[in-house]
Amino acid sequence: MDSKLILSLFDKFNEGSAAELDFNDGTVHFTLKKKEAVKLNVVSAHDAPRSEARTDGVSTNPRHDAPTAPPAEPQTLDFAGEASEAITSPIVATFYASPGPDAPPFVTAGSKVKSGETLCILEAMKMMNKLEAEFNCEILAIKAKSGDMVEYGQPLFEVKRL
Length: 162
Prior knowledge:
Blueprint: H1 3-15, E1 20-24, E2 29-33, E3 38-44, E4 85-88, E5 93-96, E6 112-113, E7 118-124, E8 127-133, E9 137-142, E10 149-150, E11 155-161
């Protein structure tokens, strides 16, 4: 199936009012479900920006074809007694904490995040999906490691609204 057609389906689903889409053409099958707590931006791996040389040594390539460092362990802050909530995975995908193998993570435990900021990348069907915060929050715990396969509904971040 053409990646432009898939991207078009994702765009139409994101723009529409449907809460769920189940697609099966005999060779490709996927289900999309909307949640209020997350926003998903879809970037085709084909259309994703390529690495560029930067003087600060940070890769601008969002692809994770060959991680060079071992994945970081999940992070947790001591937040006993604080009201928290989970941000869960909206899709079955591979979790990436950073925009590239050598880049720092988007967020760490203790990060204060504004609505619209990227929390992680979820790769599904060679498409890089940026998971963005829907509200201002503080990251209390990161429940997945870079490179982990995550399931739909699996908690990825424990957060406290700000």
